[in-house]
Amino acid sequence: YYREHQLMLKGVVVGIIFLIVAFSLYDWWRSQRIESASLSLSKALDQAEDSRKAALAEVKKEYSGTASGVWAEVELAHLDMKNKAFADAEKKYAELHKKVDVANPLFALTLYGIAQAQEAQENLDAAYTSYTKLKDVEAYRMTGYFGMARIHEMKNELDKALGIYNQYKSFFNNPDADK
């Protein structure tokens, strides 16, 4: 049997060796890319404020698809908020928000960024909607409730704001009541 199929068996062995080498090389390349992306992000964050935006944009472009590339996008949105470019920040947060699943920690962070940007632009109804969604994320529940109440205060709807604060207080006293 071996002699009849000697060529085929050698081909299978060579193919298996090739696959093992290819997988190892890919794994090495991927590790190097992740390491390089992390280093580039770190350097970009250490830049002076006037050159940080360009450095982060380069990380986003060069390392898209890595955690560092995604975090560069988050930092660019944060910079827009800091520089009072609220519409740009909202757009960046919204683009990121579309890409992440509800289980991803960035889901709540980007939703919070959207809400803050909307509030800063005085788009209060949209901000209220975003804060309402945010209160359904367990780790951001207090932030969501307080954001909703703050919107009511800004609209001079103090009774509604007090109702939201009381709703949060009752939830805090009985967390299972909201489920």
Defining key terms:
single chain; 179 residues; mainly alpha; 0% strand
As residue ranges, the low-confidence spans are none
Note the gap between the termini: 67 Å
For the sheet with most strands, the description reads: none
Could you spell the SSE succession in H and E letters?
Answer: HHHHHHHH
Rounded average pLDDT: 91
Q: Report the total helices.
A: 8
For the secondary structure, the number of strands is: 0
Rg estimate, integer Å: 25 Å
Structural class category? mainly alpha
Looking at the structure, what is the overall shape? elongated
Percent of residues in helices? over 70%
Query: In what range is the share of β-strand residues?
Result: under 5%
